[in-house]
Design goal:
Order of helices and strands: HEEH
Shape: rod-shaped
Largest sheet: 2 strands, antiparallel
Structural class: mainly alpha
Radius of gyration: 29 Å
Oligomer: single chain
Number of strands: 2
Low-confidence stretches: none
Strand content: under 5%
Helix content: 25-40%
């Protein structure tokens, strides 16, 4: 869809970072290092839509979301190995 390509390029210029596109539909996305940074970018996109710096294809307003991707929980550390059992002392032979 050419209009979506134009919007993707506009978002790239506005946000200054790569813009991904879903393979199955008109979803555009960007990754940020924190939820706070993503929220700020979402606010920038809303402002650009509001003041006309960014135009969108279609008639409706886009959904603009800032969320986090949950990381997998850290693997539990393996239990500490038990110290080796004490060996009884062997008697020494005298020569």
């Amino acid at each position: 869809m050419p209009a979506l390509t134009a919007m993707r390029r506009s978002l790239l210029r506005l946000l200054g970072r790569p813009i991904g596109q879903s393979g199955s539909g008109p979803t555009l996305w960007a990754l940020y290092p924190s939820g706070e940074a993503a929220g700020e970018a979402a606010a920038d996109v809303r402002a650009a839509l509001s003041d006309g710096r960014l135009t969108i294809p279609g008639d409706g307003l886009p959904s603009i979301l800032a969320t986090t991707i949950a990381a997998a929980p850290a693997a539990a550390a393996p239990p500490a190995a038990a110290p080796p059992a004490a060996q009884p002392a062997r008697p020494t032979e005298e020569p």
